[in-house]
Design a protein that fits this description.
Mean pLDDT: 86
CATH superfamily of the largest domain: D-Amino Acid Oxidase, subunit A, domain 2
CATH class of the largest domain: Alpha Beta
Structural class: alpha+beta
Shape: globular
CATH architecture of the largest domain: 2-Layer Sandwich
Radius of gyration: 21 Å
Strand content: 15-25%
Strand order of the largest sheet: 6-7-5-17-18-19-14-20
Number of domains: 2
Helix content: 25-40%
Number of helices: 10
Distance between the termini: 29 Å
């Protein structure tokens, strides 16, 4: 099949690779000049079989809400928040949560396969802890694990001493009660990975067209005319495809609306600070060993080679190029409180990017209309879910069996 992929973030690049490996003729359209330049540029980098976090940890409930939401933004997005509350009800999560967990497991497994198959070399470490500071959190996690011991294989609840042994650089003053050790967790540089996957996709036959914004898409018509799916570039160039896969982040919303597909996609903004680890007398200051996530704030601190990154989804306001000082201050404060003095702050770089998601927080995966497919809405978990989502969508598009039922992640749940 002749397939177009719109968007070259980590999800789009992974999708292009999987489709090319399925022997499809793939063309990727990206409005910017390279891969992983927007939402995938400074990912937190934590991948675990129970992602998305902290919601994937039993007993911790819904993911953290952004720390800042102005009154105008709150009013404008009220329907979205109302839908989010409805989606968090137990009856609504009963089918969706197992599907997301299955996708996370599939993604962790697929990334390992690709890393071995193509000998991918990128910054990565193993290990991850969710830090618990409240007694109620510890009790809730313990009860949830005891109630379903087979549902979360490898998950371990550690006391404070055992957790500090794994992360000896964690400040003694951090109010640690316990920690959840994540099964088969790893930390990796998502932007490096995106470039490596792009190279492999090209070797498999995929074509990348950069600086090629898409103006509109149209679903295929299955009437007597048998019109294929169509894609219109801003240059006026019109192209026909057997299938179009939309992975364009927040830009997907306008494209899909024009194609008659309404998607309640909203983009919380994520901020990230990346700094080199400090040295004293030639010895690296002890920072995080891999990744730690504060269950209270949702802030993730990860080690990427000789650098440390602290990131969070914490803002619903302002344009992309306007960094919010209070968000950056919060991240710097969290880094200093957790691993004091580990980073060379005056050499730090700051970043802001979108984390598009739908109200229930799960990705949207599968067909939306004849010839029109979706792989988007991963929020802050694009790195954690990209490889699995790409593989399962490629199998579904190729009419092959998927590893699990994708229906709970389909667009029909949002209609």
């Amino acid at each position: 099949m002749k397939v177009a992929v719109i968007g070259a973030g980590i999800v789009g690049v992974a999708t292009a690779l999987e489709l090319a490996l399925q022997q499809h003729q793939v063309t990727v359209f990206e409005r910017r000049s390279s891969v992983a330049t927007q939402g995938s540029f400074a990912l937190p980098g934590l991948l675990a079989a129970c992602a998305p976090l902290p919601a994937g940890v039993p007993g911790l409930g819904a993911s953290q809400r952004p720390a800042w939401l102005g009154p105008l933004a709150a009013l404008r997005h009220l329907p979205w928040w109302w839908a989010s509350l409805r989606a968090s009800r137990p009856t609504a999560t009963a089918a969706r949560t197992p599907a997301v967990l299955a996708l996370a497991h599939a993604s962790r497994r697929r990334l390992g396969e690709l890393t071995q198959q193509f000998n991918l070399a990128y910054e990565q470490q193993t290990g991850g802890l969710v830090l618990l500071s409240q007694p109620a959190q510890v009790s809730a996690v313990r009860q949830a694990i005891a109630a379903r011991p087979d549902a979360f294989p490898g998950l371990a609840l550690l006391d404070a001493d055992a957790a500090r042994a794994l992360e000896p650089g964690l400040a003694a003053s951090w109010p640690l009660r316990a920690a959840v050790q994540l099964p088969a967790a790893m930390v990796g540089n998502g932007r490096q990975l995106a470039h490596l996957l792009k190279t492999q996709a090209q070797k498999a036959g995929a074509l990348f067209r950069f600086d090629s914004p898409v103006a509109a898409v149209a679903a295929a018509q299955r009437d007597g005319s048998a019109t294929p799916a169509q894609l219109l570039l801003t240059t006026g160039e019109a192209l026909d495809f057997d299938a179009v896969v939309v992975c364009a982040g927040l830009g997907s919303r306008g494209l899909l609306r024009a194609a008659g597909v309404k998607l309640p996609l909203l983009a919380p903004w994520g901020h990230a600070v990346t700094a080199p680890l400090g040295h004293v007398d030639g010895v690296t200051v002890q920072g995080p060993q891999a990744a730690v996530l504060d269950a209270d704030t949702g802030i993730v601190i990860t080690r990427l080679g000789q650098r440390v990154r602290v990131a969070a989804v914490d803002d619903f306001g302002g344009p992309e190029d306007a960094l919010r000082p209070r968000s950056l201050t919060r991240l710097y404060a969290a880094l200093e409180a957790s691993f004091p003095g580990c980073a060379v702050i005056h050499e730090a770089t700051n970043w802001k990017g979108p984390r598009p998601q739908v109200p229930d927080g799960a990705p949207v995966l599968g067909p939306a209309a004849p010839g029109l497919w979706l792989n988007l809405g991963h929020g802050a978990h694009g790195w954690a879910l990209a490889c699995g989502a790409a593989q399962q969508l490629a199998l579904q598009l190729s009419n092959q069996p998927t590893a699990f039922d994708l229906q709970p992640l389909g667009v029909q749940r949002l209609r």
